[in-house]
Amino acid sequence: MRGPTERPRRATEADDGDDGDNGDDEDLVSRGHFESVAERDALRGDGGLRSDAPAGPGRGGSRTGRALPVAVPAAIALALGLWGIGRHDSMWRDESVTYQVAHRSLGDIWGLLHHIDAVHGLYYLLMHTVFGVWDGGLTALRLPSVAATVLAAAAVGAIGARLAGPRTGTLAGLVFALLPITQMYAQEGRSYALVTAGVTWATYFFVRATDTPRPRWWTAYALTLGLACWLHEFAALALVAHGVTLWWSKAPRPVWRSWGIAAACVTAGVAPLAVVSAGQAQAQLGWLGRPSLGMWLQFLAVAVVGALLCRLLVRAGSAEAGAGALTRLALPLLVAPTGLLMLVSLVKPWYVDRYVLYTMAGLALPAGAALSRLITSRRLWAGLSIAAAVAVLVPWSLLVRSPESRKDDVVAIAHAVQRTAHPGDGVLFMPSRRREWLLSYPRVYDRLDDLALAESPTASRTLQGTELPTAGIRRHILAADRVIALMDPQGQPLDPFPQEEVKRQLLKRHFEECDRVQERGAQIVVYAKPGAC
């Protein structure tokens, strides 16, 4: 194994595709990648991203050794993703948006994106294709997220192996796959797992590009991160993390120049989406508030854990263990995107933790390295730690596969309405955005008379349709004999809009409550004219 100041050996064809050491230092300088050998050496050893770790993917070693850090986390992520993928036949309202939008025509989806949800446009088109090939219900809804989580776990393993050896890579990938938040969004019919896969593989290409300054790695980096940004534009915050990594690593000017070009391409590529999304921000994110104290404490707790793990690795590790290189990559990825988004959200409330789900790779990498070191030095403690982790993770793993892990359950709500409502009953959604609870179940929704609806979601090119003015709502409610009201649970804040106020007032003054059914995240209340219950 080389020391941190020794020159790399010259690659041979027997390296099986290793680009990390192709050619000697003078040859790379002559090709214009670096202005001097010293600049190339700046990213070698513990002073930069390049680590003289044991053989990992693309770094020599046996085929099995190269495959394990990618294959083992991917296999575990696949098994966890398929385990209980139906979530006891439940679906929450955000997934319902995906389901009902993906089942619209391409023209209707395109019309919707001009009004709202442009940030999810590419994902909706992907899901439209998935359902066009196989309309497999909840399984088809979630399989793309499972596949993306498999790819993300493999990428974390590949990064860890590249920086700190195959065992660290394998364990880091496993930690990532086992994190409860990873398991949760692996079975979520939304784009966040796909964004995470894009960012983690872009980060792997970033490591390769700084290690082996060749255009193809920077091209792969820009294309992959650009794709992730089109799945959700907040993936662009990974650029900030990568920039901090280069600064911390004292990267030479040619690397900065190459990264700057790639970052500019990503930024320019996502700019049209960002412009359109900015115009939709109020309608899209108007429900968000500024980060609460609890959110800040949660962020600080995760950041402190990551920082402590990195600190322990650097103090106990060596250049050969890749602790410094791994720390300089992982800690900015863990902290920078979330921290920056939360700071922005003090002015423009845009923060939700799932928007930066990919930062969990920055926690998994030092955790995997710490486990690797613990296994090497203290097997008993390692065994106890693994047993404790299993004891904690099993209940969480069961929870995220239950309906109780989400805010509501659209399936249960639709079934409750089907049992409760009579054909032709009036229905009110309070607030109007709760129309989403029935839109994925047209056989239930179409039996009812939507008393407040002005235009359907498809006709209005919106997610949940548009509602009548207060006078129209009043007229329709007073003409109804029986009304099914779908409401938020008791104790939730009431929308102050005039249409919502008139619904509440008329039901209270002119109807009596006949029945109330509580479901996860909702209540279905049956109203009738006095004496007609």
From TrEMBL:
Its main location: membrane. InterPro entries: LipidA_mod_glycosyltrf_83 (IPR050297), RgtA/B/C-like (IPR038731). It is a multi-pass membrane protein. The keyword Glycosyltransferase applies. Residues 1-66 are annotated as: Disordered. The chain crosses the membrane at residues 67-86, 141-161, 168-186, 192-209, 221-247, 259-281, 293-314, 326-344, 356-375, 381-400. It is found in: Cell membrane. Residues 14-27 have a biased composition (Acidic residues). Residues 1-13, 28-49 have a biased composition (Basic and acidic residues). One of its GO terms (molecular function) is pentosyltransferase activity. This is Glycosyltransferase RgtA/B/C/D-like domain-containing protein. It comes from Streptomyces lincolnensis.
